[in-house]
Write a structure and sequence with these properties.
- With 206 residues, the chain is an alpha+beta fold.
- The chain has one domain: Gcn5-related N-acetyltransferase (GNAT) (Aminopeptidase).
- It has 5 helices and 12 strands.
- Strands 1, 2, 3, 4, 5, 6, 7 and 8 form an 8-stranded mixed beta sheet that branches. Strands 9-12 form a two-stranded antiparallel ribbon.
- β10 and β11 form a beta hairpin.
């Protein structure tokens, strides 16, 4: 079984959107219908983010979206990036796909100079919470979101999603020819750009 993580291609947009919708519809028992559909429509909208996909033996197994440069739909502390729309297909869960997607987003955010990576998740998304906490994300209640108030649908306080933060090293370096480097999240690099705390920023790959 071969897992590949890369940026999504335009022709994959419909399949990615369907995967995200199906993933969020699984929470229909926990969220009122009108609020859930407003939330899903918002999450599916790329909104300037970079969509990443995980392919297992060439088939779409999961997706996540990285938001750089202030493109996250909510205000974040300065220097931060955000991740949202993290969904793994049911047939590929508990196989490390979510961890690989999150590692790729963290590496790219780090390389691009972000000092923290944020995400929001709900308490009823128990598998997601376990994944993020296992990867080192920690709660930041100051950035929590009241979904009903945000979309103007449902009652205030009905669904509150919790903010989580992963602190990232603040700098990166450019590798010389022949050098190799294993990134903080376990991704291996050859000559090119690699994130490492050395006090200087390298080129951001986009």
């Amino acid at each position: 079984m071969t897992t590949t993580v890369r940026e999504a291609r335009p022709e994959e947009a419909a399949d990615v959107a369907a995967l995200v919708r199906d993933g969020y519809l699984a929470y229909d028992a926990a969220v009122p219908p009108d609020l859930l559909h407003s939330w899903i429509d918002d999450v599916v909208d790329a909104g300037g983010g970079v969509t990443v996909v995980a392919l297992v033996d060439g088939m779409l197994a999961g997706t996540a979206r990285l938001h750089l440069d202030g493109t996250y739909p909510l205000p974040l502390p300065g220097g931060s990036a955000g991740v949202r729309a993290v969904v793994v297909a049911p047939s590929h869960r508990r196989a490390g796909v979510g961890s690989v997607l999150m590692a790729a987003c963290a590496e790219r955010a780090w390389t691009c100079g972000a000092t923290a990576l944020y995400l929001h998740t709900a308490p009823f998304m128990t598998a997601a919470v376990a994944l993020y906490e296992g990867l080192g994300y920690r709660r930041d209640p100051a950035v929590d979101l009241d979904v009903g108030a945000h979309f103007g649908t449902g009652s205030a306080g009905e669904v509150v999603v919790a903010a989580y933060r992963l602190d990232l090293a603040p700098a990166c370096r450019i590798l010389r020819s022949g050098e190799g480097y294993e990134g903080r999240q376990g991704l291996s690099y050859a000559a090119g750009v690699s994130a490492e705390s050395v006090g200087a920023r390298g080129l951001c790959l986009r």
